[in-house]
């Protein structure tokens, strides 16, 4: 029971985080909210994961959860990479502006 | 070296440089023999690359941090465009390229009315190139063909000459070595007319030491694949 409460609070936090960023990243935030609500349901009715797993040809509900978790982590890594690349591009533009502003002509010999 | 009459075209030669203090002076002096302007992009070097380049007669732009060769090229090209260049050339800082090849490429650009002339070390039979380097470079050619459909003989040659109009379209966003492949992708996207021109690469102990290790080929593939995710 305690672990169910702790996990529920964690997923509710994730859902809240997604909701807070809904205007900026509609698809990703929407996905986070949906997944968090689904995960919370699974916590309180774990038998449904086994029924779902069987439908998909997987033996155990726990395995299904593990596979989805793996896909979720890969997805998050991709999202993180895209964000980091955007930051690098901004940083490069800034450095370029500074560099061009400070261009030095050849030494007068 | 630098034979023929002085060409009065408004050409800017862009040389990205990182810790090339020992050779940059010589490279800049050679580049200036054609009478064109040279801009060295000092990519956060820890040595005296900047002062040496200025002393040799180049305009120097200094990145406040090291960003990579792709970023340095993009900075230099942007600067050349701001200076109202009619033509822009890219030239390596390690002394591997010959200014005579650049002169011929500029002539070809004008007479054959192409947008960009790209150097290739494989059109003529190259000498003094190791089997490992040849395999890596040919791998780059294959990757470029698979990703763009454009078949080149040398996809990672830093010697290029382009019109200013082409330079405005070739906005590189890959900061690292994947910029060479990005160049080709942009050429295809903007339907630019290009021609490969045989050039000679001068392999010296210095330039070979500065060359890219095999492991960089793998990181280039990763940069290209992940770069597409950001679009």
Low-confidence stretches of chain A: none
Listing every helix as H and every strand as E from the N terminus to the C terminus, the arrangement of chain A reads HHHH
Helix content of chain A: over 70%
Q: Regarding quaternary structure, how should these chains be classified?
A: heterodimer
Question: What characterizes the major β-sheet of chain A?
Answer: none
Q: How far is the N terminus from the C terminus of chain A?
A: 82 Å
Could you characterize the architecture of this molecule?
The complex is a heterodimer of chains A (109) and B (231). Chain A is an all-alpha fold and 109 residues long. Chain A is built from 4 helices and no strands. In chain A, helix 1 (2-20) runs antiparallel to helix 2 and helix 3 packs across helix 4. The longest helix of chain A is centred in the last third of the chain and has 41 residues, at 61-101. The model of chain A has no long low-confidence stretch (mean pLDDT 88). Chain B has 231 residues and is α/β, with parallel strands linked by helices. In chain B, helix 5 (131-148) runs parallel beside helix 7 (179-189). The mean pLDDT of chain B is 87. Classes of the chains: A mainly alpha (109), B alpha/beta (231). Chain A binds chain B through residues 78, 81-82, 85-86, 88-89, 92, 95-96, 98-100, 102-107, 109, and chain B through 39, 41, 50, 54-65, 67, 71, 74-75, 78-79, 82, 173, 175, 226-227, 229-230.
């Amino acid at each position: 029971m305690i672990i169910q409460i702790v996990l529920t609070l964690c997923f509710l936090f994730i859902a809240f985080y997604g909701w807070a960023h809904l205007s900026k990243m509609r698809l990703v935030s929407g996905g986070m909210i949906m997944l968090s609500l689904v995960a919370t349901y699974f916590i309180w009715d774990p038998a449904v994961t086994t029924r779902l797993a069987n439908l998909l040809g997987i033996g155990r509900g726990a395995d299904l959860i593990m596979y989805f978790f793996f896909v979720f982590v890969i997805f998050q890594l991709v999202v993180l990479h895209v964000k980091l690349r955007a930051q690098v591009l901004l940083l490069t533009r800034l450095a370029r502006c500074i560099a061009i502003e400070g261009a030095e002509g050849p030494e007068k010999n | 070296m630098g034979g023929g009459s002085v060409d009065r075209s408004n050409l800017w030669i862009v040389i990205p440089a990182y810790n090339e203090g020992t050779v940059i002076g010589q490279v800049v002096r050679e580049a200036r023999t054609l009478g064109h302007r040279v801009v060295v992009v000092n990519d956060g070097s820890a040595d005296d690359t900047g002062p040496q380049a200025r002393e040799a007669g180049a305009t120097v732009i200094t990145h406040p941090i090291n960003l990579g060769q792709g970023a340095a090229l993009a900075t230099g090209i942007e600067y050349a465009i701001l200076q109202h260049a009619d033509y822009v050339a890219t030239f390596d800082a390690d002394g591997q390229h010959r200014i005579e090849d650049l002169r011929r490429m500029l002539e070809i650009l004008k007479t054959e009315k192409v947008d960009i002339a790209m150097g290739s070390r494989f059109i003529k039979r190259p000498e003094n190139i190791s089997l490992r380097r040849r395999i890596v470079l040919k791998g780059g050619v294959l990757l470029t063909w698979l990703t763009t459909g454009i078949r080149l003989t040398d996809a990672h040659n830093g010697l290029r000459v382009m019109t200013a109009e082409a330079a405005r379209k070739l906005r590189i966003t890959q900061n690292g070595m994947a910029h060479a492949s990005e160049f080709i992708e942009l050429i295809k996207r903007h339907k630019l007319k290009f021609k490969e021109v045989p050039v000679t690469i001068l392999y010296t102990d210095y330039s070979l030491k500065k060359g890219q290790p095999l492991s960089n080929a793998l990181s280039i593939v990763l940069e290209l694949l992940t770069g597409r995710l950001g679009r």
